[in-house]
Write a structure and sequence with these properties.
rod-shaped, 19% strand, 3-stranded antiparallel β-sheet, 146 residues, 3 strands, alpha+beta
Length: 146
């Protein structure tokens, strides 16, 4: 009879364990799932910034190229084209671009909705991408370097 009393005293102990472990399991699953989404979003933001910088650097100032043979960029047009690329490719992504006579720098900010972390109040992940592209004419090899 004492053995039955001992077993009866443990009734409900598994329920307490489940109540404590289930939220911890969901939190771990959320970190794994949404952590993977965060890595993918960061790579996407970096790729978007690189492609936008390349789109902007293609806007050479043709009159300077014809007159002086210099690779100078049409800066206002480069900024506009870089951010236009971002808005067309990823609507809702913010873009900031700057240009010098030979480079275009782009900074993008993306927002990715979360799947499981939304249950604890994190509804989206913010990621940033940053890239610079330079205007170059022709192919540069190691032998062309000074």
């Amino acid at each position: 009879m004492s053995r039955l009393r001992h077993l009866a005293s443990e009734d409900g102990s598994i329920s307490i364990m489940i109540v404590l472990l289930v939220p911890a399991m969901f939190a771990c699953a959320g970190l794994v799932w949404d952590g993977g989404r965060a890595i993918t979003a960061r790579q996407h933001a970096a790729d978007l910034a690189e492609q936008a910088a390349r789109a902007g650097v293609n806007d050479l100032n043709l009159s300077a190229l014809r007159d002086h043979g210099s690779d100078t960029i049409d800066m206002p047009r480069a900024i506009t084209d870089a951010c236009h690329y971002v808005t067309v490719t990823a609507p809702g992504t913010s873009c900031t671009a700057t240009a010098t006579t030979t480079t275009v720098t782009v900074h993008v900010t993306t927002h990715t909705p979360t799947a499981l972390l939304g249950l604890i109040g994190m509804s989206s992940l913010t990621t940033h991408g940053y890239a610079t592209a330079s205007a170059v004419r022709g192919v540069i090899t190691g032998e062309d370097q000074p």
